[in-house]
Amino acid sequence: MVYNLSFTKGKSAKTTCLQPGQSSLKGSQKIPSWVEASRLLTLCPSSLSWLPCCSLGSSDCPIARLKQTCSEVLPSASTSHSDHSVHLKSASVISSDSISTSADNFSPDLRVLRETNKLAEMEEPPLLPGENIKDMAKDVTYICPFTGAVRGTLTVTNYRLYFKSMERDPPFVLDASLGVISRVEKIGGASSRGENSYGLETVCKDIRNLRFAHKPEGRTRRSIFENLMKYAFPVSNNLPLFAFEYKEVFSENGWKLYDPLLEYRRQGIPNESWRITKINERYELCDTYPSHLVVPANIPDEELKRVASFRSRGRIPVLSWIHPESQATITRCSQPMVGVSGKRSKEDEKYLQAIMDSNAQSHKIFIFDARPSVNAVANKAKGGGYESEDAYQNAELVFLDIHNIHVMRESLRKLKEIVYPNIEETHWLSNLESTHWLEHIKLILAGALRIADKVESGKTSVVVHCSDGWDRTAQLTSLAMLMLDGYYRTMRGFEILVEKEWLSFGHRFQLRIGHGDKNHADADRSPVFLQFIDCVWQMTRQFPTAFEFNEYFLITILDHLYSCLFGTFLCNSEQQRGKENLPKRTVSLWSYINSQLEDFTNPLYVSYSNHVLYPVASMRHLELWVGYYIRWNPRMKPQEPIHNRYKELLAKRAELQKKVEELQREISSRSVSSSERASSPVQCATPVQTVV
């Protein structure tokens, strides 16, 4: 493959394949194979060949390093928080005021190296509070699929995988949080032809594959591999996730952002038809539901228990959102436990009737089952199923044909194959179609649109569920609420939407993402939340002025979905997060985001709080999110980071707004002055002419 790539400079710590100053690879220069890379290391000594080539030990070993020496090559400890925040932006946070100079952070080999070589210090990563170096290997070659092989230093900390090469100007840096790594594999070895190729490949959850070649005689690969396996998968090694070690302090505590009582009060709850119950305060009714639930006012708590026994995992229908005018509602739940015998529950039927009766403007209720009808029927064999229209009077059942987590996982795998590292231009459209990714996005958006339309235009209450009510159900309810309620299109409103519909209602983030777990083939993993964010991005493309947040906001959320830097997306339920005491032991992602809102603000935003959005959910109007899925390809990068341009536009808008206000004051002042002159007695008096 011949590459003709253009590159730009950028501040992001994750510009993994940028080569500033080089406009293209020369002629037919090719990316070296593993064997070629190993030969390069063995036969072509580096200009840094005087550096010791050894297997560095654990970071638990002491280091004697003076603070003054560190300050000569690393950022000053007095660096402002605003400078610090710049580095945090690309899913790999850099805190210059927390760079450790403790003797406990480096191995003896590294200590000797640092004391004799300033360059070694310059290739070390800046460290976060609680972060320390676990291993370091010199003369490692990163096989970049875009710019070719580059030699430098590979460092493993308890938070990140960090590669830096001083051979280029400016230095080439690759920075990936360990949480994003799905699996680590050893590549190569001695072949029958006498060739040696030693390397490591890390497969990442954010589309990337990172490949490194090691010198066979250096024996650094084993040490790096062992430390990666240990610290990239701490849960599998009975170690804490890095979020429990990270102690950065921000100006706002994101854990206090979402208060369910305040959010329900904003919606006008409680009222005559709906009440807030504490029956689940100790998570005894349903261990995957939040402690505060909104239920029909005329259904007592004892009856709720009988309804819970008929719903999968006790996830009864509870209110998510209520229309401020029509009182039509969106309620969510899990499938009924009908089974092959077609069991019924009078309490469950009465409960859905109460939901319908709470809306005086409609005598019908729609039940949206996210699954394909075939899957819903198949679930009867497992004791589940769907609501029979014979049993539920005045109810209409609609299947939305959204596939399960296994289909979505396979679709993302196929998408990754066609977007990384290279795109085959000649068959791009057919290859993209074969992944079915955009087809799944279309079905999710179309389903949410039907729900929003029934509530807004039909003034009809809806019940939404899939099988267990924590995957497709969360996608549908949150997207429908985003279409209906302008509050959720603000930055804080969107954060509350995620906290409410995803976190408090028990989307299984730990299982779906696999935080710190080496079992990459786990059948529970699936890109459910990624699809939701993708759908949100599709809406921002169709309504560029309707959202207060920008694309960078969505990408930052996804990056930290995997990073394990913050506690926001850890665990599977509100109950588990409470047991782990996450608000006290970890930092919230919203703490970081809300401390620098200007970076995530859409300069085109216009607040239309009462407007309902109806996105077009057709393949002609959907597109692949290049800014996320293909962002590692330097050909797809903008000349400057988009969020920097956003900040410039925001500043320009503020400047223009200020001028408008000044002109308005000037016009108002002139108007008042003219009125005063017009009403003045001197001006109004008729001159009297005296005749002598």
From TrEMBL:
It catalyses: 1,2-dioctanoyl-sn-glycero-3-phospho-(1D-myo-inositol-3,5-bisphosphate) + H2O = 1,2-dioctanoyl-sn-glycero-3-phospho-(1D-myo-inositol-5-phosphate) + phosphate; a 1,2-diacyl-sn-glycero-3-phospho-(1D-myo-inositol-3-phosphate) + H2O = a 1,2-diacyl-sn-glycero-3-phospho-(1D-myo-inositol) + phosphate; 1,2-dioctanoyl-sn-glycero-3-phospho-(1-D-myo-inositol-3-phosphate) + H2O = 1,2-dioctanoyl-sn-glycero-3-phospho-(1D-myo-inositol) + phosphate; a 1,2-diacyl-sn-glycero-3-phospho-(1D-myo-inositol-3,5-bisphosphate) + H2O = a 1,2-diacyl-sn-glycero-3-phospho-(1D-myo-inositol-5-phosphate) + phosphate. Its main location: cytoplasm. Residues 670-692 are annotated as: Disordered. Residues 681-692 have a biased composition (Polar residues). Residues 670-680 have a biased composition (Low complexity). GO terms for cellular component: early endosome membrane. The active site is at 466 (phosphocysteine intermediate). It holds the Pfam family GRAM. Residues 435-482 form the Tyrosine specific protein phosphatases domain. One of its GO terms (molecular function) is phosphatidylinositol-3,5-bisphosphate 3-phosphatase activity. Keywords: Coiled coil, Cytoplasm, Endosome, Hydrolase, Lipid metabolism, Membrane. Gene3D superfamilies: Pleckstrin-homology domain (PH domain)/Phosphotyrosine-binding domain (PTB) (2.30.29.30). Residues 254-629 form the Myotubularin phosphatase domain. Substrate binds at residues 379-382, 404-405, 466-472. One of its GO terms (biological process) is phosphatidylinositol dephosphorylation. PANTHER family: MYOTUBULARIN-RELATED, MYOTUBULARIN-RELATED PROTEIN 2. Regulates the level of these phosphoinositides critical for various biological processes including autophagy initiation and autophagosome maturation. Belongs to the protein-tyrosine phosphatase family. Non-receptor class myotubularin subfamily. This is Phosphatidylinositol-3,5-bisphosphate 3-phosphatase MTMR2. It comes from Sarcophilus harrisii. The lineage of its organism: Eukaryota, Metazoa, Chordata, Craniata, Vertebrata.
